[in-house]
TrEMBL record:
Protein name: Genomic island protein
Domain Toprim, residue spans: 189-247
UniProt key word DNA repair: no
Keyword annotations of the record: DNA replication, DNA-directed RNA polymerase, Nucleotidyltransferase, Primosome, Transcription, Transferase
Domain DUF7146, residue spans: 85-180
Coiled coil: none
Positions of region (Disordered): 258-278
Pfam families given in the database record: DUF7146, Toprim_3
Cellular-component GO terms for this entry: DNA-directed RNA polymerase complex; primosome complex
Compositionally biased intervals (Basic and acidic residues): 258-271
């Protein structure tokens, strides 16, 4: 089970020295590895010490080396720690939705050659989009975004009227470090951009795969510490390659093997590759 860990006093003292500000279970700090004017370093508590990610692109090992040279401010005040609850709209819309079978959601998944019993997917026949008074209602697949067992957001895949395609994907809630995260056993995991890519990767490779739900989020999601081999199944384009490199830097911890695994050319993503397999 994955949980957001309460920061230790040592982590609190380091964050204070980095002029950090806490946001629930993580802090945004001044990065000591580059000339940082605005906080660009995420610091959170891991099982074996602090976990860092610099959004400006600094390597985690460089950041940790500089933190080791930083004098902590001892006995700094602890932040108020209270896990955030699921936003009411997220829970309400999720509870209104139904299983995929027998809906336009099934039509969509079958058109993508994907199983219809994937976990944490639901169908909403009249999902709201936009703010009042301009709210529209469309059929949508809901993708649950979880950190551990706590749902923090949903991605709404807005379907066309016949269900064979979509015309946009929209996040509702605060995804934080969450992902579409099917349960798995063992120490091998892959991460991909979209739910369709992750499910396709698992079908093709036989490796459990999570979806970050956005290329920039590949570096942000919470990968369990027990994962010893992590495949980065990013898209086969410029943004995908950049996101894969950022993910390698973010998820690189001792005793973990990281492998970039884009789809074979000429396919753009793993969902497209899956659709061409006979």
């Amino acid at each position: 089970m994955l949980v957001a860990l309460k920061p230790t006093q040592e982590t609190i003292d380091i964050v204070a020295a980095l002029k950090g500000r806490w946001h629930g279970s993580y802090a945004m700090c001044i990065c000591p590895a580059h000339a940082d004017r605005t906080p660009s370093l995420s610091v959170r508590q891991g099982e074996r010490g602090i976990l860092v990610h610099c959004f400006a692109g600094c390597r985690s090992e460089d950041v940790l080396r500089e933190i080791g040279r930083t004098k902590p401010i001892l006995n700094s005040s602890a932040p108020s720690y209270q896990p955030e609850r699921t936003a009411p709209n997220v829970r309400r819309i999720w509870d209104q939705a139904t299983e995929i079978r027998g809906t336009l959601g099934e039509v969509y998944l079958r058109s993508r050659r994907l199983p219809i019993d994937l976990p944490d997917l639901r169908f909403h026949p009249r999902c709201p989009f936009g703010r009042k008074p301009k709210t529209t209602f469309r059929p949508a697949i809901l993708v649950g975004v979880r950190t551990g067992h706590r749902m923090t957001a949903i991605q709404r895949i807005r379907l066309t009227n016949d269900g064979t395609w979509h015309d946009g994907k929209f996040m509702l809630g605060k995804p934080e470090r969450g992902a579409w995260a099917p349960q798995f056993e063992g120490d091998v995991l892959a991460i991909a951009e979209g739910m369709e890519d992750a499910a396709s990767y698992t079908q093709i490779k036989g490796v459990p795969c999570w979806a970050a739900l956005g290329n920039k989020r590949l570096a942000l999601i919470n990968v369990p510490d027990q994962v010893g081999t992590l495949y980065i199944a990013a898209d086969n384009d410029g943004p995908g390659r950049y996101a894969a490199m950022a993910a390698v830097g973010s998820h690189n911890i001792p005793e973990r093997q990281l492998l970039r695994d884009p789809p074979p050319r000429p396919f753009h993503d793993w969902a497209e590759a899956q659709s061409h397999i006979r």
